[in-house]
Amino acid sequence: MLRLLEDKISTPVGPLWILCDEQFNLRAVEWEEHSDRMVQLLDLHYRAEGYERIPASNPNGLSQKMREYFDGDLSIIDSLPSATGGTDFQREVWQALRSIPCGQVMRYGQLAEQLGRPGAARAVGAANGSNPVSIVVPCHRVIGSNGTMTGYAGGVQRKEWLLRHEGYLLI
Prior knowledge:
It is built from six helices and six strands. It has helices at residues 35-46, 62-70, 88-97, 108-114, 121-129, 156-165; strands at residues 2-9, 16-20, 26-31, 51-55, 106-107, 142-143. A four-stranded mixed sheet has the order 3-2-1-4, sandwiched between helices. α4 (108-114) crosses α5 (121-129). The radius of gyration is 15 Å and the shape is globular. The termini are far apart.
């Protein structure tokens, strides 16, 4: 049975759940009002082997590191470990998301091309949308082909806030 240590922190844009395994790899980072989506993804990826959620205070310093990100230490998320369920393709997309530098964005089509799958922008978008470790796996750094703020499960306003926080100048 997978034991998930969970904590919730306050951020400038709302409460945030942080769940990690006992090796302190992030398994989920999700906004409180979208916790139902988080539970659906946990069930999808871990129900077969079984999992339990255990309240924990700042497991291995992960909660504090997320607070530091919101306080302006933007590079700290690059050092946070994650281990996610998902298909091979999803994990490939999620890994590619971590290569987008802070303060920059990429379009879905560009990300598909980077993965050697030109024309797979919709599949990349679907994988991006099922990312269980938001912020750390920065799905908010992917935008629509015409530069629009599309497809962030946490909401467009929060996506814009995160991009501004990271120094991306919205037009």
